[in-house]
Fold:
Amino acid sequence: MEMGLVSVDRWVQGSQAYFLTHLHSDHTKGLSSSWSHGLLFCSPTTAKLLPFKFPDFDLSLLRILHVGTTHTLSLRSPSSSSTTTVFVTAIDACHCPGSVMLLFRGEFGCVLHTGDFRWEVGCERARMAKQVLRAALGGEDGVDVLYLDNTYANPTYDFPSRQVAARKVIDLVKSLPDHDVIIGINSLGKEDLLVQIAMELNIKVCVWPERLRTMRILGLPDVFTTDTTITRVRAVPQCSLKIDTLETMNQRRPTIGILPSGLPWAKKYIQKGEFLSGSFLTSRYKRDKWSENSKDQSDKPIGNTGPPEQIHQHMYAVPYSEHSNYFEIEDFIKVVKPTSIKGIVSASECYIEPMHFFGRLCRVNQPKQDLHNRSEVKDSGKRVGTVSPETSLGDDVKLHRYGSGTSRIKLLGVRKRRLSVLIRKRRGVKIVDIDSPEIVGN
Structure:
């Protein structure tokens, strides 16, 4: 699109309409309670949650995008100063509550921004979202530009569906009936995992007060509490799940920590027909063989069905990710049929140039690009950066890439983050739907 027309998850002055795909902090950098640069378009769920993240936000600036509905915006072309019409459709991204993809159509062509997304094979929500996307594309052959969640856009990154990963967590908790269980999560996301644990074990899950309020806003089942004395399963902010804390807790009673994340469950090829699989959070890899029935073994994902990786005596990593793995991204691109692809994850050592692997799937066959073709910050000849596939995970896991080309991940001490006060009551201000005639019409 033209510069100065629309911004997605970018919060600097100069655009006429601003779109928020979801409320994870890496997508709201620059957004604040004093925001005044223009109208902000988001899903109904995000609109409900946003005032608690930004307590003094002017809610009259919010406009609601209903999933599956195409909305029309009349904007001014910065180049010609004439009126231009932009059609935008929000599509369920199946990432965290309120997350959406955004499909834009107009004189500029067809542009799809995925935000962060997880479209698993066999997921009913993803299947419905795919239908909405196809309907929104109409007679289009595909999209012109795809802004892609390329967090795991590399065939070495492999993890199972969230359903399978949740089963791993539940089985682990069941196998240790005398242990307290501490699960590290973010301020938004992985609610379904906690609900599944509570339902299957017939217990409540303890969360911190701000998280409990979020659960209630989302209308989740009444399986959460802030009372630590009535349950052995507790969810805590991911940044507070530390090895030394677990060691201290084990002096009083048996306790384990669980880190549910896709960071980054990988496979490495040894020789033809064999691979190693495991998590970079550990130094152990498991040797396996490809299925004899696989016709095209090099393109088949690994069913990561083994037990959780034990990072430490009291800490486990489980491959529960809210980002699509490589094979899911590949299937998605085959549906979208883009002319070109741009990755939205670029400030991470995990950055993968998506055209390197997926240029072959574009409508116009693109030349294969370098794996990392972005300019990188260098420090004394070493590339050092944070791994941030899951929001805020970069705070406690760092990837250091050394000159030799080897990579190691270290669990680091986490700097404490001040918890902002989110409870603020607002009266007399209404969240406006996206049907204001002077701005947009359905």
User: Anything to note?
Assistant: Residues 43 and 65 are 5 Å apart (CA to CA). The mean pLDDT is 79.
